[in-house]
Hints:
The protein is an all-alpha fold. The protein is built from 18 helices and no strands.
Amino acid sequence: MPGCRASLVACRAAVDHRLPSDDLEERFKELDVNGDGVLTPDEFMASRDILRPGESETVRSFRNFLLESEENGPLWYRVADSTLTALGTLCFVTSVVEPKLCQAYNLNELEDFINVSFLIKFLLLAWINNFDTQWIFSGKGALDLGSCLPVLEIPARYIGGPPLARTANLLQIGRFLRLLREALPSDSSNPRRVPLGQQILAVILSLLGTIVVAATVLFSFENPVDQITFQPEASARTFEDALVYMVNVFAGRDPPWYPEKPQSKLASVVATVCAIIFVPFLIARTVELFMAPRAAQDRQMKLKASEGDGSGWHLANWVSVMKRLDTLSDAGLLSEQESRVLRRLCLRQNDMLRMLDLCYGEAESAELYASRLKELTADCCESPVEKEASSSD
Length: 393
């Protein structure tokens, strides 16, 4: 976790959860090597090792690897997750649209393997977060859990056969929710490391993938392959019809046709809920895309103001000088013309004014400070340029 510092309260809460209260202060002092009251990234990682003394070195290294991969989100980690999600979707769509091709290449088994792997990953993430319910119901935890639900199709297939397995396919609609984790709002203590362009790409791919999966689920409900129907061919819905229907649902438009089967209507409801979930992600990332240049400019201005003029003085120091000049003017120690000249020097961040303020600004004698400022204004008024500028005011 580069650049991130754990607060004293959070660390004490974590330590208090595992240690007796008598050893709390001593253990925190042991972890805080620098003695500054907060934990650096290295100290925080060391605290995780100390608070789990029963773990082996291999388990501890694996836990830290998962933590760093999940928090930093390297490119290979996100690409692998997106690739497996797309591959599982391809297997599911093929099993519905082209069942014979799916059986020839054993795509059902490959889909089951991917679903189980996502479930294992969710359990590992819950493990490194100590199976905390707050994490499970957080943004990342909830999206990860929703994308793992297609694994329930496996027990449904063996318990209720094809009809129950087809009903469990409703859970396939949430498969692409895991990609939305990359576009979650960043925390101030843990800045987002995924570039904005990649966040928008993840949201768009997740949206398109969800539309395709929802259309596939709707097509499977409208055309069950294991049931004999005596309806004419004209009434059968094609995959293209289902795709157009879902595009209209996600776009908020009236669909060209309405489903007839009860399960199809449930699929429409689930797809509508997913479409509502996508709205804030799309709006937030789009607004951030257009506001990124302005935000970068504001950050540069704040950085320039915090850095000051290179002499150790910041903008707040000059604000204090301006207030002291106003105080002396209100007390009658400076004339109106002298105040105007000094205010102009302050706005220009004059070095001589800064020197006088450092010497006499915090002194107890305001008269001495005012007399030195009068000498400065007298010297400045001797310059034709300053005299002309002061007379113009």
